[in-house]
Amino acid sequence: MKSYSNSYDIDNSLIRAAGDTHKWTIEEAQEKMEYYRKKLIEVGEKSPKATVYATYMRNLSRYIMGLYAMMTPDELNAIIEKHKQENLNEQVKTAIEDLKKEVEGDEYTEFEEVKDNDE
Length: 119
Hints:
61% of the residues lie in helices and 4% in strands. It is mostly helical. A two-stranded antiparallel ribbon has the order 1-2. Strand 1 (7-8) and strand 2 (14-16) form a beta hairpin.
């Protein structure tokens, strides 16, 4: 796409400067999608801007899917493995935090020997 003018979104934020030929990475597109998801939540579904934000998100989703479609199976497998590892790391962190909370919540009491009345 050749463009000799700047592109702006509905909030008048610059999307692409004139002459910019940079192709967004998957991560960049996902960040922008998250940005518009938050904007959609802020304005609410009844706002006139809501349909525009939803359209931006659909377009970004299609762009991301197109990038995935151009990848080789090895590249896709590498991404899948990376996400598996990140998910595993997140699960471990959560488990450690839960364990810390549980340990901190337990009170330590001194050992006290209690004699049995039957003796």
